[in-house]
Amino acid sequence: MKLITEGDINQYYLQTLCMLFFPRAKFSNTEKLGPDTPVAIVKVTSDSKTAYAEASLALGGRSVLKYHSEDYKPDEPEKNTRSIAASKAFYFAATEFCGYNPPWGLLTGVRPTKLAFDRINAGMTKDQTVKSLRSDYLMYPKKAILATDIARTEAKIIKNYSDRDCSIYVSIPFCPSRCAYCSFVSYTTKKLLSLIPDYLAAMKRELELLSGMIRDLGMNVVTIYVGGGTPSTLDENRLEDLLSFIDSCFDTKALHEYTFEAGRADTITAEKLASCKAHNVSRISVNPQSLCEEVLVNVGRMHTVKQFYEAYELAAKSGIPHINTDLIIGLPGDTFRTYSDTIEKIIELSPDNITAHTFAMKKSSALTATGENVVTEDNRELVKCVDYTQIVTKSAGYYPYYMYRQKNSAGNLENVGFCKKGAEGIYNILMMEEVHTIFAVGAGAVTKLTADRGERIERVFNPKYPYEYLAEDRGSEHAKLREKTFGFFGLTQ
Fold first, then answer.
1. What's the farthest any 2 CA atoms get from each other in the chain?
2. What CATH number is given for 1-100 in this structure?
3. Rg of the chain on CA atoms, in Å
4. 119-133 tens-digit pLDDT
5. Fewest Cβ atoms closer than 10 Å to its Cβ: which of 58, 311, 331, 464?
6. Could you tell me the pTM of the whole model?
């Protein structure tokens, strides 16, 4: 795609808008124009009071030209106003040209609820917040309402925690096999799985050092999340050893939430679930992604629908209080018929958490590497699936409690966690809204130091790959983290 801009315009943001309408677009200043190359031209000018924008879109002999103006506001930087004028002009041209209105309007970021939070914190009522989101970002009414409702629910949880509280993320980046849509750093070959014993030993050392630092900081651990990869890739003995060690480092009985993301049905056993229960795990994920056998085969999921039901029954009998199930909307081969059948069957099981993700093309996934075309310009069936999820979960007594979006998600649509009353995933809320420090251990883990209710954030990255993680000295690396953490919070060691 050819994008030409004139004036003070954020070109990267305009590129993300272009991709709402042309999902497979690539941008190059040297690209030769062909008959199948869309061309967008966006210009912005201004005077002392107003920013004026025009946008044209042309392809195959068709073209559309639109104009839009925005008056400067006393509390808004002029550059932002020029960007809004340019983006709205392009949006109006693209919606007319393509005959498609993205439900989230101009919004391309991963955290729609942040915008609602900002307005609620400024004193807006629910109706005022919804009206503002619709006007400023051209959202569909139901999306503006969704973002506002979730922000209000999250606010009730967040107010219970202070800057002296923290959470811990434990990374187990191993899987029995790799799903075709996955981009996580996870390892599946026998050679890489052979790293597990040394990896766990290094991670236990990191956990031990971290627990001492948290005590010295005077912070309180409120949630722990064991994720991956697929943590239940660990065999029964190694899992029992890891959970026992976590118990020795932290008071897991006092946690507000302890999540173990088991995930894959083909890795879940009664013995592993019994270990989780014995070590105070309060929330577990059993993730089918789909209950259509053909779809599971398409994405290399390597377990059957029958295996999911067997694993779910084990989880339901384990005594672990909360069960989450993850679904993905729009997987290759999925349709409204197959997806609606999946969500209806999941609701029949009555887990107290259901997380519905929209399929996203990840750069490092197998689907992207093979160049398979699974994202299309026509996302109406996806929108129908997303809308149906909200309808059937509401009628079954669930409500949305957290939301985020992923880059390159089909239709620019959202991922939403639904729960029954009182079963919100606390870690998910605190992590996504970035109001809470999360210390992360293991390969690919990212510690997020947070203060002043999210006004100050600093990220500390662990090595991405297990072999890099194992090559480091955990003691010296922890010393660096300790120095950075104490400095961030203005404390002396």
1. 70
2. 3.30.160.100
3. 24
4. 998 899 999 999 999
5. 464
6. 0.90
